Amino acid sequence: MKKRRLIIRTVILTILVAAVAYTLYANFMQDHKQKVAVGDQAPDFVLTDMQGTKHRLSDYKGQGVFLNFWGTWCPPCKKEMPYINNQYHQFKDQGVQVLAVDIQESELAVNQFAAHYKLDFPIMIDTNKEVMTTYGVDQLPATFLIDKSGKVVKYHTGEMTENDVREFMEKIKP
Amino acid sequence: MKDVKCECGHVNPHGTVLCEACGKILDEQETNKQLLDMRYEGSARRSQTYNKTMIDKVWNFFSSVKVGVWLIVITLIASIIGTILPQKMYIDLPPEVYYEQEYGTFGKLYYQLGFDNLYGSWWYLLLIALIGVSLVICSLDRVIPLYKALKAQRVTRHEGFLKRQRVFGVTQNADKSDLAILKQHLVQKHYHVREENGNLLAEKGRFSRWGPYVNHVGLIIVLFGGMLRFVPGMYVNENLWIREGETALVPETGEQFYLHNNQFILQHYDKNKNKKFEKALAKAGNVVKNYQSNVVLYKRTGEKIPGEKPKLEKVKEYKVRVNHPLTFEGYSVYQSSFRSEMNAMRFALTNKKTNQSYGELKINLREPKEKYDLGNGYSVEILNYFPDFEFGKDGEPTTKSRVPNNPAFVFRMYSPEKPKGETSFVAIRQTIEPFGNNTYKMAFRGIETKNVSGFVVRKDSSLWLVILGGILFMIGVVQGAYWNHRRIWVQNKNGEIWIAAHTNKNWYGLKRELEKVLEETNINMPEDQLQREETDKEGV
Questions:
Q1: What digits encode the pLDDT tens for the residues B303-329?
Q2: Residue A62 burial class via C-beta count within 10 angstroms: exposed 0-12, middle 13-18, buried 19 and up
Q3: What is the DSSP letter of A167?
Q4: Do residue A103 and residue A56 come from a single domain?
């Protein structure tokens, strides 16, 4: 009798504690959700760059991908874009690809920006924020570092120095 | 920790106050009392007796009604505090700025203590959860012994039990026929009558004792429904803005559904058409009659990766109006808001002296072209476009965002007279000619706007559970409130007729019923011992 009572009480309490713990955990996750976290497989996407070439992320398997979300109007983006361009020249022959995804801007703005800063890496426009939503980006600039197997190695938000960019590219060099 | 065997032969669990079967008092202390405490039938509330392991200790803590009441009081106080200042989701500024700026030190403290998001905070959820735990354990700990005691009760009861009932009376020389009449009356009053050796137990409305527990089950289901909202996919409440003529993905549908906005319609009440309300309308100004978005719902066919254009299949067309949402597969799309956005600007290339126009151009502010050819050697090139123009810190024109709130352009105007072009900076109500006097200007001709519909996408798969819980809650309340559990014992003791009666509420009703039942018999109306006690005291 006593043993049964203990078992029943333990089972009921366990269920209750589990329910409470799940609710608290789910509530916590809602506040701190990161759609694509470090260690995750980077979600695939397809975008067309300003020259009309299609870029599909999964086509870059075997290379490191420096995935940057940006906008022509965002001041830190203006600062870091030339750095990324410099390092792109250093690393492009070592198997590091830069994909710069502009969020919902006009072709004119992006083209003029690219021409002004003489950017050579592929730039594409995410017209309806689909890729941005998939990656759960909310503030620009945001950078995902994806290694040769397609895994996210690092997620960085905010401005980068040229040193940061170099370090990051070094990290994903295959 | 042994079970207690009563002299009637029934084995009661340890801690029982009144024998479940015959009602004999098993707890010494209880014998000193004039009247019995009939709560939970004097059954053994386990929690009060076993207190060995950690599990028992936790169990016993939550089994206490006192603890439950305190949890509720604390939650109530917290809920009240949450209503003093607006919660985080209803303010526009960042909370760290807002509270101090609007409410001073108190506001700052309010924010620092985390009351800005009180109803979503972990400790508030924990309080609610603990109330749930308390509810489950309190109920289990009471309903099971009560059920067992009521099930085990026998017709024949112990003298001590009968004597200590609140309504009790003895009749010396009653007739056998009186008992027969009494029994007949009881049956007429819808009592369930059991007989044993000439003793009667008449009982009705026992199910009203389960009312509070049915009510608690309802509450627990409501809490469980609330918990389900945290399960991904169970609850969706998202905003969705779609420009006229555009198609957007409906959020949280697993990239399955797309919504195309054909047109947004805003209608006002017409003063001339509604003569009856002419005065009221004149006083109130524009009164909106209808907010409507004509939409088409599409479903995606085939696989798709982000960035790719989806293949869509039309599902249905619908006119979304306030309170008339578009519904599909558990989702509801409500009309909730709208705004008007600048969509295009029109300019005319004009000779400043003669005011002669050499052609008009319309610039789409979302997708401006690089060059506009006006024919006859006239053309305009956009050198720079600032959708949300401002002067930067360095004095250079720049844009604050990608949204065309305040568009500005640097134009290069080509004409037969100036084949190399003239540069002009044009913003709203502002023109700068950086390289001296131009022959031509871009004369502003107008703005075109586009409506943007604001929708709320909602899905609540937990709603039916909450409704079910609510219904059970009410059934429990009604069950416990509108019926009473009444028992009347009629027993032969030493050649006398003993009558005792008990109800869980409404003693007046019980006594009136007893009077009716005892009509046409020689059996004395039993006395209300509690009332007698009180009159005795008053007499002193």
A1: 888 878 888 899 999 999 999 999 999
A2: exposed
A3: H
A4: yes
Contact A6 B402 (CB under 8 A): no
Would you call B56 an interface residue with chain A, using a CB distance cutoff of 8 Å?
A: yes
Q: Report the CATH number at residue A149.
A: 3.40.30.10
Partners of A98 in the β-ladder: A66
* Structure-block tokens of residue B144: 């099971």
Q: Does B467 touch chain A (CB under 8 A)?
A: no
Sign of CA dihedral B272, B276, B279, B281: negative
Q: How far B308 CA lies from chain A's nearest CA (Å)?
A: 6
pLDDT class of A1 with cuts at 50, 70, 90: low
pLDDT at B48: 56
Domains held by chain A: number: 2
> A21 and A52, same structural domain?
no
Per-residue pLDDT at B481 exceeds 90: yes
**Quick one: A25 and A53 in the same domain?**
no
Do the domain assignments include residue A84? Answer: yes
Asked if A24 lies within 8 A of B402 by C-beta distance, the reply is: no
| pLDDT tens readout for residues B487-514 | 999 998 888 899 999 999 899 999 999 9
What is the spatial distance between Cα B102 and Cα B135, in angstroms, rounded to a whole number? 40
Q: Is residue A39 part of a domain?
A: no
Give ipTM to 2 decimals. Answer: 0.79
Q: Average of pLDDT values for A94-121?
A: 88
Q: Does A108 touch chain B (CB under 8 A)?
A: yes
For chain A positions 110-149, those within 8 Å of chain B (CB to CB) are 111-112, 126, 128, 130-131, 133-134
The CATH number of the domain covering residues in B166-205+484-539: 3.30.310
Task: Kindly report the pTM of this predicted structure.
Answer: 0.75
Strand intervals (E) in B245-330: 247-249, 257-268, 288-301, 311-321, 326-328
* Torsion angles phi and psi, residue B330, rounded to 5: 85, -10
Tracing tokens 């090139």 back to the chain, one arrives at: B381
CB contact under 8 A, A27 and B385: no
Residue A88: inside a domain: yes
Whole-number pLDDT of residue B46: 58
B65/B47 Cα distance (integer angstroms): 12
Chains A, B: CB contacts within 8 A come to 107
pLDDT at B75 over 70: yes
Interchain CB distance below 8 Å, B308 and A46: yes
A15, A92: one domain: no
The two beta strands, B199-204 and B430-432, are: unpaired
Residue A66: which domain range? 46-172
Q: Closest partner residue to A13 among B1, B59, B126, by Cβ?
A: B59
Both A22 and A58 in a single domain?
no
Q: Judge if A5 and A62 occupy the same domain.
A: no
Q: Do A106 and B368 touch (CB under 8 A)?
A: yes
pLDDT at B540: 46
B 402-441 residues inside an 8 A Cβ radius of A:
402
